[in-house]
Amino acid sequence: MKKNLLIISTILFSFQGINAQVNLIGTSNNQSSGNLDIVKWQALDSASQTTYPTDLVAYLLGSSVFDAYNSNYYLSGFTDTSYGLFAFNTETTIQTLSNFTAFSNITEIDMSTGKIYNLRADSIDYIVVNEYDIKTGTDSLLGTIYEPGILGIVVDATGFDSNNGILYYIGYDGTPALCLFGISVRSAVFSYTKTIIQASAPVNNITSVNYDNVNNTIFALNAEFDNQGNYLGSNVVEVNKVTGEVSTRGQLTEFPWFVVGSSSFDQNSGSLLLVGLDTSFVQKMIVFNTTDNTYQTGYVPGSVSEIVCDNAAFARSTYTTTGIPEMPEFAVNLYPNPADNQINLIFGTEDTGDKRLSIFNMNGQLVFSKEIPVNSGNNIDVSLLESGIYLLQVSSEKAVETRKLVIQ
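Given the sequence above, the corresponding structure tokens read:
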């Protein structure tokens, strides 16, 4: 089995403020050996490249992640005789290939726990959510998302909130509408939310989704098209987790093409990294500073894909020393629960601003929404909701809290 390393497209279906270098790891095709190499380099330093040969001959597109605790670069890879979870340690350069085979090309890692999560469309109308614990070698099915009529899953469209344990995915539901799915992976009961993306153009194609764990923000690449399918250009955007609104952070007018499966995010500098091809078809690393919305172009070794950032310093200082940081909370409580016709919300004193109440059914559909202004009554009529289990979400400018709600 030989390689299919780079897919270049404007539709990806299947800085000046940077004070430190961005450390990257990726995979490239070695034309001499016929195998794959692991490549380490710094985004803004073309002289920093180091190459390590492997026995791999192919990999699964979009399956690479970086474990900040043990400095392992993981990839779902193939040799001439086997297939499994390939690991390359960036500190010791030791390589291993485990017999784990349940990976998909929709993969993310929780920096605070080291657990790996993936999405698969194994069955018609269902998206399957799996968790893989590297320490124990345990693969677990967390749950399924039912979306009748879905055609598949968008590649390179996931990001992971390691502060709160939420896997975010931007893709199409069965209608089809472009949606933001928020999947809570640490809850005892599987649950998720679904928010329709508020388009910034007649047709949006959002990929290269990444999560900023410092500012709790979703960033992505948005290719825009008009109603006739004409390409309008690509922008770096921010996606609002609550409303689905898409806000443009910066235009990438000099880059009409991008390399699939090569986006990453440097938590230390707040930089979204993309591999773009300019109008002369020259491949460049785009280092987009989300703090001031400017970008620099850096270095990409030839034919390198499956690029990840080495966020070890950030993850070890953030999660090892202090534990998982808590979001600012306003400690919402509700009663009665189970409820019949009415619920009452009680808020703490840390967040006194306006809030929005959203209630989702277990299929992730928004079934109730209400603005809650400051000093307004907190008695909510839920008599129109059918009996069942719901996810109640209260959001403000500072925090988002969720509670399970049972309607009798």
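The longest strand covers residues 203-212. Try to locate this feature in the token string yourself.
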